[in-house]
Amino acid sequence: MKTKYLFIGLALASLMCACSRDEDSLFDKPAAIRAQEAIEHANEVLLGSPTGWEMLYFANTESRGYNLVLDFHPNGSVKISAKNDLTTKNKLMTDSNSIWVVTYDYGPILSFNTFNNVLHAWSDPEPDGDGLLGDYEFLILRAEPEQVILKGKKHSGYTILRPMPADMEEEEYFDACNAMFSKYFGGGNIMTLQQDTNLFYLHDGSTGLFNITKVGEKAATVDPVLYPICPTLDGFMMSYGFNGMKDERLFKYDSICFRGEQGSIISAGNLYALFMTYIDVNKGWTANLDSCEGEFADATTAFKEALVTLTKDNNAKLNSVAITYHDSINYYEGGYLLRLKYEYKDKKKKTSLTADYLIDVKSNNNENIEITYLRPHNATAETWYNQLPEMATLVNTVMSTFTLEAVDPINPVEALKMIDGKSTIVVRGATNLK
Hints:
single chain, 8-stranded antiparallel β-barrel, alpha+beta, disordered C terminus, Lipocalin
């Protein structure tokens, strides 16, 4: 029995010695040396990018991200540039006359401790005492050659540094990031986020703050959780990731979807809701018969044939016809307007007429749309519908049950396809209306 306890005592003593050696290996350097090494490592990384850094700057946890370009110099100076609608009035602004330094306070701190016109625009208190609630001192959470992760010391926004692409001018970089943002997050676009088997809708991307709703549930009306985003050349970066994937910050664009670092996928959202937005908010969609061989090259069969026939009809003398779903009049007369605007020559003068046809648009389980012709809505519509068979044919080609497809799987706002087996009609959103 005594032997048994002796062995247990020896085992415990051995374990305690092992733990002690582990602790010694973790803290075998004085705190001052560890701090100095952390500072030196951060300096080495920040000075190590020959092209400078793109800064995806989140002023705080509730503000969208903005693009900056930084170039650190060994003499302690830093060049910072930006071009945005918030702080530079969409003009390129650069300030090379400020100082940066890495210090230590329970971890390495990057400070821009002399005023910089570009960066300090976010932290300037302004007359209201708050300003844009940004930071100019950052905890360095991770410093690696391919990425530096910072956290605002006062307002806690996560900011990311990545090496700037080689041979790219600053203004070219800003314009490319803004183009990415406008194309995929503007115009009322609704996206779908897939995380494993869970599906969510992402709203309000044009604000730079995604509002998230689980598919099948109602959107939160009180204190919704918002997710700040910042455009990049290859997609977008988030201050923190969706739901439980807080570290999944980078989503890269691959022409089919945005793919997150941990497997989340963002693609087109509720196409039916988007289509109804086109016609319910005066956005509509439009086609121009002059370009049916160009932007409508993928329109097929009856619809395309009607376009071509109509423009070649000598009796009609049409120069162009624009076809547009227009103002909703659903509340007044039980339908929507299909508006056709004609331009034709009469004694060498160009004349324009507008014909409105009353139609009904219904959904079928939010999977497709059913369009039904009701009647002409004005005298011009009735005259042209009755006297020009090609016009009646054209109107009738859009009366069917259509499924919807996104021309661009990520940006259905730009264009949708209406497909019914006989025709494919390209639907274009408000940003393409002239």
